[in-house]
Design brief:
Elements lengths: L6 H21 L7 H6 L8 E9 L10 H4 L17 E8 L7 E8 L6 E5 L16 H9 L3 E5 L18 H27 L5 E7 L1 H12 L6 E5 L5 H17 L10 H12 L2 H6 L28 H12 L32 H11 L15 H8 L11 H5 L3 E7 L6 H17 L8 E6 L16 H9 L7 E8 L2 E9 L3 E5 L11 E5 L5
Parallel strand pairs: 4-5, 4-6, 6-7, 7-8, 8-9
Antiparallel strand pairs: 1-2, 2-3, 3-5, 10-11, 12-13
Helix pairs in contact: 5-6, 7-11, 7-12
Amino acid sequence: MTKTSGMTRLCAIALSLAGAVMAAAASAPAQAASASDCGGVLQTLSARAEGAQAKLVGASELQLKGTDWERAPGMNIVGLATQAPNPFFCRVSFVLKPTPASAIRTEVWLPANGWNGKFLGLGNFLGLGNFGWGGSIPFGTMMTGLAQGYAVAANDTGHDETTGHGGRFALGQPEKLEDYAGRANHLMTVQAKRLVARYFGRAASRSYFIGCSLGGLQALIEAQGYPEDYDGIVAGAPPNQLAAFNAAQIWPQWLLAQDPGRFIPKENYPSITAAAIAACAGPVGKAQGFIDNPATCGFRPSQILCRDGATAGCLNPRQIEFLDLMYRGPVDPKSGHLIFAGPALGSEGQLGMFASGKEFTNAADFFRYAAFQSAQWSPLTMDWSKDVIAAEVSTKGKFAVAPDLGAVLRRGGKLLLYVGWNDYHHPGDLMGWHDAVMARGTAGGIDARSGLRLFVLPGMDHCQGGPGCDTFDKLGIMDAWSSGRKAPEFFVASKFDNGKLVRQRLTCAYPLVARYRGTGSMDKASSFSCEQAGDAN
């Protein structure tokens, strides 16, 4: 079994890397701006930018309504438990209108002092009440990047969630769908870079993009569709291909419609997880409440079949069938082709929102509005042999990123992928995409590993949360890598509870996994080493 170097060397490397990052930040020239500089930047905006405003905002003055998701430590792009207040900055806002139907609300924030010389673009996740469709600007995450000295930009994907929930904005609006599918982020990036150059008198030395969930897919679209936009991209839990993933999300509802007797009450899922953990978790997972490496778990729902009249902590045959079908994922009934893998064992805490018997509107809206342009479409009418393919065709592949990153890799771009084992989004899908990128790169004479890393976090839910360690410095890791320092083979992830550090764990680049060394605290990263995948503990 291959092991990484001892923890003494590991810690030395980590300290060296941290020192290099701090040294680079310290050496970056500070920039100062005046009120006239702030207003002057508007001259650089194109005619497609309307309603432009620019004003200076004092330190700690900004009070913006955010979401609980944005405030969660796991969503913090620099791995902090709490969101930092805003520094003194120039706030620029405008609406991009590449077509008469377009209305892309955009903000660019420029540090008035202490600019680190770099630019950060941000993807969307969810609006204030709009799960998965964006429709608002992630102000909280912008503030985090700004506090690190970055010039930061974000947009609302070209629609306002307050005027219509979910994907309704796409009905009869092909140009708005085009904005949502990637044009909004690209045009934002072009305009933001112009503002940066005008305000500071020089272009940004490095440019990064970070997003998770919808933002993760946006990140992949940027990497493939606009390879010149960013030097480094962080894509968390990207639902790629979106039509297939959304189909997997409505699969449980469709199954229950075929046989309502399959229904599993939400309160029963914790006992299913407990049984899977008991069967598959190592000492660390059993102590902390998750399966360390679900890929090696042999648990089957039939192991908790109710026997001898028992009803508590077990499932009846129809419920077991339902659970098996959810784990498998939807298939084409004619070809037997797996459309999208179901969730991994141990992720049962995520199943309730999909297996309640009610429509998961976020997913249904993709088919209803984006793909089929029919407000009457229902998931219960899904034809699994052709509707997913039809949706991909009707949306012209805009939400499906092929494993071809040749353009961005040839120019030295970096792509960091991450996903949690407790996510409804099975990490095996992203592993397969990663492997396909590597294979295609090799076939094309490209060393894809020089610009690609994937990290799978045990016990982490969708983008954040869950019993595992979910918080790490995404931006710092990418900056160190893209700036020419060592590629990330591991990092330390943390778990916070009410702002307090609970534990930390080593997280290793795929295909390696973190293994407990057998001694030392299970709550310390130094007690783990990176090893080949197997029965990780």
